[in-house]
Amino acid sequence: MAPASAMELEAPPPPVARAPAKEIKSPEVSALSSLQRKKLGAHFMDSDERRFPTNAGTRTPLGGGYEPPSAAAAGGGTTPVNIRGQPIAAADLPRTGGWVAAFFIFGNEVAERMAYFGLSVNMVIFMFKVMHRPFTSSANAVNNFLGISQASSVLGGFLADAYLGRYWTIAIFTTLYLLGLIALTVSATVPALAPPQSGCDSLAMLLGACARAKPWQMAYLETALYVTALGAAGIRPCVSSFGADQFDERSPGYKRRLDRFFNLFYLAVTVGAIAAFTAVVYIQMHRGWAAAFGTLALAMGASNALFFAGTPLYRHRLPGGSPLTRVAQVLVAAFRKRNAGFGSGGFVGLYEVAGAKSAVRGSAKIEHTDDFPWLDKAALQLDGDLLAGAGEGEAVDPWRLCTVTQVEEVKILLRLLPVPACTVMLSVVLTEFLTLSVQQAYTLNTRVAALHLPVTCMPVFPCLAIFLILALYYQTFAPLARRLTGHPHGASQLQRVGLGLFFSVLSVAWAGVFERYRRGYAVRHGYLALFLTPMPDLSAYWLLIQYCLIGVAEVFCLVALLEFLYQEAPDAMRSVGSAYAAVAGGLGCFLASALNTAVDAATRDDAAGRPSWLAQNINVGRFDYLYWLLAVLSTVNLLVFVYVAKRYKYRVRVDAQATTVVNKQ
């Protein structure tokens, strides 16, 4: 059955009869014509002659030829193990994993997100007010911290999938994270690590007249900051995957539990962000910088203790060896055989190891697909591929001949790339909102009745919107969408990603409309030069509309993206797959900075007296033009995503109870 389009409405597959696996017989290999051999290689027929030694006159594929994944293969490659790497006995499985283990992991994520957002809010002000660094360079330094901590997440994913496993990767990098936060707390506590503060009032700061930090003081601060970034990079791609590992993919209701897990996981992310934008900001304002950074360190220390306390409950997956090496082997082998054809005289078959398990540790066998046929050359088995003295033909040069499963891993990584790439634009919008909307809030009245909210707390509103939507998701959206679509989860993963991108377009378009009105109000009422003075008759709570819309966009897009990448990534590359989302976020930070630089250079004309769209005086600049530019770019990005999603084909999964192959919807 041809794979269905990813954007089609999904429905539960009809029940299938549980039948014993049947082996597909093929004619004797030596009697096949060139065309027949090509078709045999393309369709992976399995035969007795391919799997067992025959007489000398019969040619057999080296290494056993391709054997379609069986019921054993479906589960054998991903069997959960304990911390010592030993398979968990069936009798012990109910005492491990599940929701209890997942909640220990949620605690680690709450603290990590609290630290991440706490630093993103406070570090710019700390560098500006305490280290006396220019505001622009302070913002750039923090943007670099945010970008590096996300873009380098592929390092954590690589180490987890290749060598350490997800548990030990989290354990090592969460400790680094804690050390970085302790170092930042020391920087805010010890006077010798900061420049003199005497005689440095607000006017002196704006004029740049305060004593600058010495190079070694900035070196210490930046080292502590980037150690923290490294810790975040190692944790981020592993925590969600490790939490999802706690659920048995062979049990009934697995997908429903996985769907709820990723919603609760992002709820934990949101709780950490809310704490950063409220409690940490409050502590900083009333107790100082040392108390604020110390709070982040204490929270991370407590979460580390909670994570390690859950060690006896965790289920683990074996690392599968270096994924980068396997990818490189496929590319090199395909290049070396680029001129070989499936109809060539030396063609034997497409190579796969015999038996239930794949050659990739920690991975089940993966069914062959027709995408990227040039990569199939890496599994093209020719007469000369047997290593000298290999005996029964199980030893091959992995840089010349790869298994079908190994080739399919590379194909999956390539198929996945366009989806997270289309979420980069959402990260650009989120990054711009983090800075531009705060500048808007400085010109607005943030008081409602007796409540006066600090401007630095304004980013809490998207988090509150996310929290509310996630809390009500299964009581509101899912039942309604289920009635409309017939899909058991309301909408497919890619449909939810697309819905999130649509809401991001609405959010940035509304931001442009409101900014045009806000700027016109400032001009009409004489606030043109008073860009740091709140306009008492214009409420900052008009910003809640764009905040709530971007919160909805995050819920649908990023939660579905995490679930999509975990389920679609190869078994032995799930941390690398999850890192795709973090890398997209990091690229969004860098792209936002590059876009701001380009817009500033293109719109500023000092000779003609024309200010930049991003002028420091927001009432003189044209932030509304930038928002509309982002709306246009986001719309184009959404159209590209729709095209990508319509062409995407979900992975073919092999039922663990039978060899019937169905499309995962």
From TrEMBL:
Segments for region (Disordered): 1-30, 49-76
Family: Belongs to the major facilitator superfamily. Proton-dependent oligopeptide transporter (POT/PTR) (TC 2.A.17) family.
Protein name in the entry: Protein NRT1/ PTR FAMILY 6.1
Subcellular localization: Membrane
Matching InterPro entries: MFS_trans_sf, POT_fam, PTR2_symporter_CS
PANTHER family: OLIGOPEPTIDE TRANSPORTER-RELATED
TM region positions: 176-194, 264-283, 289-309, 416-438, 450-474, 494-513, 540-566, 578-599, 625-645
Native source species: Urochloa decumbens
